[in-house]
C-alpha cells in the first residue's frame, strides 16, 4: 500500500495545499472565533488568547500550505513534505482522540478523527519511493 500511488505525489500536494488553505488556513488566520463557533466550540468571555492561538495555528498552516504547494509544483522535496503530512496526521489523530476521550471538544472535532486517518492513509499511498 505504501507508495502505490507514488506517481501522484505532486498532484496530491498541490490539491491538498490549495484546499486546506481555503477551507482551514484563511479562516484560522482571519476569523478564528467565527471558525471555532462554526465548528461547535463555545466562545469564552475573554477571547484574546483564543484569537492569538487561532492565528498562530493559521500562520503555521499557511507555512505548511506554501511549502506543500512549492514541493508539488517543483517536485523537489515531495517525499519529505508527504512524510511531514503523515506525521502531522498521526499526531492529529491522537490529539482529537484525546479530546473525544476527555469530552472537551464538539462532535465536529471528534468526527475529524476519520479525516486525519484518511489523510494519513492517502499520504502513505502517494509517498514516492525513496
Your description of this structure?
The longest helix has 27 residues, at 48-74. The chain is an all-alpha fold. The protein has one domain (6-126). It is built from 5 helices and no strands.
Which key features would you list for this structure?
mainly alpha; 5 helices; globular
Mean pLDDT: 95
How many distinct folded domains?
A: 1
Judging from the principal axes of the Cα atoms, what is the shape? Answer: globular
Residues in β-strands, percent: under 5%
Number of strands: 0
Q: Please, what is the oligomeric state?
A: single chain
Radius of gyration: 16 Å
Instruction: Indicate the low-confidence ranges by residue numbers.
Output: none
Helix percent band: over 70%
Brief synopsis:
The protein is mostly helical and 130 residues long. The protein has helices at residues 9-30, 32-39, 48-74, 78-102, 107-126.
Question: Which helices and strands occur, and which strands form pairs?
Answer:
Elements: H1 9-30, H2 32-39, H3 48-74, H4 78-102, H5 107-126
Helix pairs in contact: 1-2, 1-3, 4-5
